[in-house]
Design goal:
It is built from 16 helices and two strands. It has one domain: Orthogonal Bundle (Farnesyl Diphosphate Synthase). Strands 1-2 form a two-stranded antiparallel ribbon. Helix 1 crosses helix 4 and helix 3 crosses helix 8. It is 73% helix and 1% strand. The protein is mostly helical and 324 residues long. This is Prenyl transferase. Its cofactor is Mg(2+). It comes from Ophidocladus simpliciusculus. Pfam families: polyprenyl_synt.
Length: 324
Amino acid sequence: MTIHSNKLFPSVNKELKQLNQNLHKMIIAEHPILYAAAEKLLNTGGKRIRPALVLLVGNITTKKQKISAEQKRLAEITEVIHNASLVHDDVIDDCETRRGVETVHSIFNNKVAILTGDFLFAQSSWYLANLNNLDVVKTISKVIIDFAEGEIQQGTKTFDNKISIENYIEKSFYKTASLIACSCKATTILSHCNEKVQEDFYLFGKHLGLAFQIIDDILDITSSTESLGKPAGSDLKNGNLTAPLMFTLEEKPELNKLIYKEFENKQDINKAIRITTNSIGIRKAKDLAEEHIQIAIHIIKSKYKHKDIKDLLLVSYYVLNRIN
């Protein structure tokens, strides 16, 4: 089943349109270069999956399915935090394009890009504090700590063919799933839900986020630069060994030679991609993503089927079907 992103969020389309307008108001900066860099990042678009999930969870957990002003603001904060992490990621990975356009550090420089990311984190923290909910502040603040933990784990394991799937999942949680899990939980806190409901939606977000990252890692190998919006094989180039490659190593040990050489030229990257796509690696990685999606869906279907959950399920299916 192919699902187009513009059909993902019909019940919160109005809120997402308003969110796009509000994001630009949230990044006002006194220095024109800082503002231009931040606005450039937001103008690259994206599917807004993270803020949409906040709005959808708000729809399910609030009385009379009325999303509160605080939840709408949380959706905006979530997207600003996500974009702050992207600009830092692009500097660390030396990625020249994202979503088909030049990255902030490519247009300006690394210093401006790092300061832009810091500025966006600071702005999101200010708006987060203004929600006046200490539990939400604690929940979302943990995400920024997790981003740093994930980057350190990734940076110290480059070209490490001994990394385990458990290590990979932990890193993927820190880098991707933590934001989705914590923002889903924070939404339920704003809905005044009990701790059991908060935990349910935290786990839903965690497993959805892990699946999202695994599928991203598959796409890095199987998709073209044009469809990715960034160079294919970026993970290989930077020495980030992901699930498809790790599963391939079990079947194709000759891949180790290319890892030892640290994919020193373009031909090595292309060869590694060919080996991986002709192995069980892609299939096993997708199976792993599907396991996490099924856990996420089970949580929602088993406990909240009396609610209007179809859009939340649609997002879950979309995450998995991006590689079809």
